[in-house]
Every structure is written in structure tokens, then in C-alpha cells.
Amino acid sequence: MMNLIPHALVIGGTGMLSGVCTALAAKKWNVSVIGRSKNKFKPLMEQHPEAIFPIQADYDSEKIFRLVQRAIDERGTLDLIISWTPNHKALERICKLNASSAHFQLLHIKGSKRYFHDTEIDLPENCAYQKIFLGYMGEAGETRWLSHEEISKGIFRQIGSTETASIIGQIEPYEARPQ
Length: 179
Known about the structure:
By secondary structure, the protein is of the alpha/beta class. It has a single domain (7-176), classed as Rossmann fold, CATH 3.40.50. Helix content is 32%, strand content 27%. The protein is built from six helices and nine strands. Strands 3-2-1-4-5-6-9 form a seven-stranded parallel sheet, with helices on both faces. Helix 1 links the parallel strand 1 (7-11) and strand 2 (30-35). It is globular, with a radius of gyration of 16 Å.
């Protein structure tokens, strides 16, 4: 069964991915947001109280799985998961909670180091998986890390994409990344 309103889960959505959360909410998505700090939910809730649904939990706790299951029960299966967590076991388990979905997209956000040394993840068949590597920007001979806005816009552009991997910013030369 398709959701009348698309449902996204953003893991780590109260920090650098907050722009993705607000962009999805502005496009009339239900956005379940996992974060550890209660205070960081407030700006998101103030902007889109009708569309942002906080899930306060640590990524390594059992509580997170109960709360994600409740979000699925209340708002429907997940059409999209955006994850900024290196905890592959927790991410795999969250994806398996969404097994009744006909199809969903997982955008797995990773740091530049993972581009060169990555680990595999075990996902269900109904998952369209895409790795998004975060690099840096080179400007006038200087390098800097991506801003939260650049990251959010880059990730938002990948929603619905069929690519299996993409890079926001640049990854190489690796030695040129900011220190």
C-alpha cells in the first residue's frame, strides 16, 4: 500500500542534515527525524510542526528500533531513508523494519575516507541503495569543508536518483582536504 503522504526517515537530521529535513517538509513529506539532543529538534519543529516528527534516541540503543517501528505504524512505510551514521548494524536493522514497503531509497551519507576504505551493508531487496560521499571545496588555492547548506542541497538533489554513488564536493586529491 502506498502512503498518501510520502514518509522519510532522516538519521542524524538535527545537525548538518537539518536543511534536508526542512526541504522535505516544505515539499509536504512526513519527516521522522532521529537525533540525540532534544534541544536540536526545536528549530525544525518551529519551522514545520505539521511535518517533522522527532525521534529522540541514541543510534546504538534498542529504543531507536521501537520508535522507528512506531513511526512506520503511525505514518506508513518509509519511502526514503537518509542516514548519517557509521553504525551499519543499526541501519540494516532499521531497513529491515521497512520490509513491508514496496520499494524505498536509502541515501547513505559517508565521509570522504569511506570513498577509499568502505564496508558493505546488508540490505533488503526492496531497497535502492546510494552512497553519497562528502568531500571538500577548493577555492582560490584553498580548501574548506562543505557547509551544511551545500551538503543538504547536494543530498536533496539525489532524492529519486538511480545512481549507486555520488560525491558532493571533491574527494581527490585526498591529501588536499582541509585539516
